[in-house]
UniProtKB/TrEMBL annotation:
GO terms for molecular function: glycosyltransferase activity. Belongs to the UDP-glycosyltransferase family. Residues 160-185 are annotated as: Disordered. Pfam families: UDPGT. It comes from Ilex paraguariensis (yerba mate). This is Glycosyltransferase.
Length: 461
């Protein structure tokens, strides 16, 4: 059947934004829409054949396209197609909220805009609630509840003050909370949208979706988790990353070597340690982590990205190196430098825990495989993703206990690993959540996509 309407999807740069947008495009195109992904970077060679792409100008000076040139490229593209009488009618534009400045271009052509969050609804709801309860005025030790959200999801002093600024050269995350009186930074980027979409589902975050709907006065839907089709089809089989996403990053370990190591370990015995490609512990904290893994009796896989611990690393920066650790732990540890097959590791039955920064993609990948967490959030949405995992879903622990801004220490990590790996209730809860989430794309998200389609059609009549 020929598509009669077109949906534009605008993605920000970076795999954490691109991959969810690609999966969203696939779900939309399956509903008989022409789907055009507008992006500033090349897409994988395995890109879905039903989709089209339009690549906007990419600045050679950095990772992000310059707004003036990007805006001109996009406006020229839309003007050309609007003057073509044979072009398909645009239904709407779904815009990654970080590209919210492009909404004004679509409005010039009377195209309704929907804002899309590649992370979950909890983080946005907590940021909004923290603003409403004036959490920026809190003092150390104080907690505040947010009316309309689960009672266990309180805002603490450390949530609002978490690493507002790092000393030069320490590495790790930066960027602090909004200044007193300021709304969350995403609010102006979504103003004028007819609705919001989140990379989540009702089974994970229904209270937070409802809260945002009531507070913002617009439709808010969960249309995720937007994971590869192979993820949902794997059931209890290993997921092979190399068959899903090609990586240009180098690694000292092949998938086969990772499988061989995991196969040699008892079921549920190994802890997987990995942070994001851009955010991680400081250079002072990495030795604490190495010491904790050395002290532990648990088998572990530790993924160390290039440039780990450095403030603004480039591709040639090695970053932190745990000198001598491999020799000390022997076959009990597998240290991977560079890229690692995360889906494979999480889907292997020997993996029993995940020490994670709680980036959203990593969070939903682990939840879907029934792997509980030792949460070590660095900044941004990770702080509230960790609260969701630990306080609301109850499938993990925090590395740091209480309302503290202290550096994570060796003892904190070691104690956290033991608590996580020994807690049968947490493991049971993670297994139950895996079953609840199901082994297919959530029906609630399928329904939300249909509801949103009908809503947009009514808006454009």
């Amino acid at each position: 059947m020929t598509a009669v309407e077109e949906v534009f999807v605008v993605t920000s740069s970076g795999s954490g934004h691109l991959f969810p947008c690609i999966e969203l495009c696939k779900h939309i195109s399956s509903r008989n829409y022409k789907t055009t992904l507008i992006l500033s970077s090349a897409v994988p060679s395995s890109f879905h054949p039903l989709l089209s792409t339009f690549e906007i100008h990419h600045s050679s000076a950095g990772d992000h396209p310059t707004q003036p040139q990007t805006g001109l490229d996009l406006e020229t593209h839309l003007a050309t197609r609007s003057n073509d009488k044979d072009s398909i009618r645009p239904l709407c534009a779904i815009i990654d909220f970080q590209m919210g400045w492009t909404k004004h271009i679509f409005w010039k052509f009377n195209v309704p805009v929907i804002s899309f969050f590649t992370f979950g609804a909890c983080a946005a709801a907590m940021e909004w609630g923290a603003w409403k309860c004036e959490a920026s005025n809190m003092v150390s030790g104080e907690v505040r509840t947010i009316p309309g959200l689960p009672e266990e999801m309180v805002v603490t002093y450390s949530d609002c003050k978490r690493r507002p600024k790092r000393p030069s050269g320490t590495g790790g995350g930066g960027g602090g909370p909004p200044k007193p009186g300021d709304k969350p930074p995403w609010v102006p980027l979504v103003e004028g949208s007819v609705g919001l979409l989140f990379n989540t589902c009702d089974d994970l975050e229904r209270p937070f979706i409802n809260y945002l709907t009531n507070e913002l006065g617009m439709p808010v839907c969960g249309v995720g988790p937007l994971l590869p089709e192979q993820y949902w089809q794997s059931h209890d089989l290993l997921i092979h990353d190399r068959l899903i996403r090609q990586s240009k990053n180098h690694s000292n370990c092949s998938e086969d070597e990772v499988i061989q190591w995991l196969d040699s370990k008892p079921r549920g015995s190994a802890i997987y340690v990995a942070f994001g490609s851009q955010l991680g512990p400081t250079m002072e904290e990495y030795p604490q982590l190495a010491g904790a893994l050395e002290d532990s009796i648990r088998p572990f896989i530790w993924v160390i990205q290039s440039g780990s611990g450095l403030p603004n690393p480039n591709e040639s920066d090695q970053g932190y190196v745990p000198h001598g650790l491999q020799a000390k732990v022997g076959d009990r540890g597998l240290i991977i430098r560079g890229w690692a097959p995360q889906l494979l590791i999480l889907s292997h039955p020997s993996t029993g825990g995940f020490l994670s920064h709680c980036g959203w993609n990593s969070t939903v990948e682990a939840i879907g495989q029934g792997v509980p967490f030792l949460a070590w959030p660095i900044r941004g949405d990770q702080i509230y993703n960790a609260k969701l995992v630990v306080n609301y879903l109850k499938v993990g622990y925090m590395t740091l206990h209480g309302d503290t801004l202290e550096m994570v220490k060796r003892e904190d990590i070691g104690q956290g690993i033991e608590k996580l790996m020994c807690d049968e209730e947490v493991h049971k809860g993670a297994a139950e959540l895996r079953i609840k989430l199901g082994r297919s794309f959530p029906p609630s998200s399928e329904a939300s996509l249909d509801v949103f389609r009908d809503f947009i059609i009514q808006k454009t009549i």
